[in-house]
Every structure is written in C-alpha cells, then in structure tokens.
Amino acid sequence: MILHYHLDKHDMDHRAVFSSSHRCAAIKAVLQFIGWKQTAGAVGVAWDKIQSDGILPEQDVLNLSWALTDCDKSLDAGAIIEWSSNGFDVVLGPACSSSAIVSGTVAKSFDFPMVIWAPTFSSVLVNADDYPTVMASTWSAERLVQSMGALSTTPEDTIVDNINEEYDGLVEYLQVSAMKAESLKATKRRLSPQTLD
C-alpha cells in the first residue's frame, strides 16, 4: 500500500469563515495546529491503528511521500496527476480549499481517491457529483458556520472567551501528549532489536 501525505505549508482559506476581528484569538489558536510539522505524525498514528485493528490485513507496508507546495494549485494538481499515473493509492491533501477544488477535479478524471486534509474546507467539495473521489477528514466551512451560528445566541465576547479557554486546555493537553509520545518513542528506540545488538 502506498499512502501519500500531501500537505501545504500554509492554509489560510479557513480565515474567511471568521469574519469578526474579535475571533482572531481563535484563529491564532487553531493556526498552531496546522502544517506539516504539526500534523505529519497523524499518518503514523492512523497506520498503527489500521494495522492493530486489522482494517487492511493484506497490507503490511506504508510508503509515505509528500509535496510542500504552498497552496500552488498547479503544483497540487500536477502531484495528483503524477501520483495517480504512477500507481499510488491515495492522497491526503491538499490543505488549501482552492487547491483542493482544482485537485478534486483532476482526481475525478483519474478516478483517484483524495482525502482533504484541512482544518476546514470549501463546502463546494461536498458535492459528490462534482467530486466523487474526494473524502474529508474534517468538516466543511458550511458546517463550521452552522456550528458558530448556534453559538451566536450568546454574547460574542463570551464565545471568544470560551474558545480561548477551550484552546488553552487543548494546547496544554497536546503539549503533554507530545512529550509523552516523544518519551515513548525514545524508549522504543532504546529497546529496539537494532540498538540491543
């Protein structure tokens, strides 16, 4: 099995969803979780889960390639063409909605699966007729706006305060989890057969 992790360094498309300047704090909190360094480990975690649950029992190898394209639509679409032509199985990305729309059209013509990897994405991509090979790992902008609308019954300052409180807790949890994971990784490395020889 060949899995291609295709992410862009910067994804700013989601900013359009937050039109109020008072929500800048929430955006800044989210931005620290976006990008190659912040999310690349998720592929390994997903592969471990696939292996441990026997979801793809006939597959035992994960080959990972990536392209850092800075949301360049032509580079992203070109990567889809190249990877689908070379027998790759799936692409995770691109992380920018504008690139995902173009790449989704290309993926459709090649009947090539593409999983959008973005904090939020254009609702255009949920149209299964136009983008039949595109799947999502998160919610569309339309769903995010609906959720934010449901919160709008409370004063805006309260929403921002609540978002900040939630993200502060999330940031702390993720930092502790990352330290534990790095410690576990070092322990596994020390106990691996190669280091014991």
From TrEMBL:
Keywords associated with the record: Membrane, Receptor, Transmembrane, Transmembrane helix
UniProt keyword annotation of Transmembrane helix present: yes
Location(s), subcellular: Membrane
Record keyword Membrane present: yes
InterPro entries xrefs: ANF_lig-bd_rcpt (IPR001828), Peripla_BP_I (IPR028082)
One cellular component term from this protein's GO annotations in UniProt: membrane
Annotated signal peptide: none
Domain Receptor ligand binding region: 40-150
Lineage: superkingdom: Eukaryota
Pfam families, per the entry: ANF_receptor
Protein's name in the database: Receptor-type guanylate cyclase gcy-22
Gene designation per UniProt: GCY-22_1
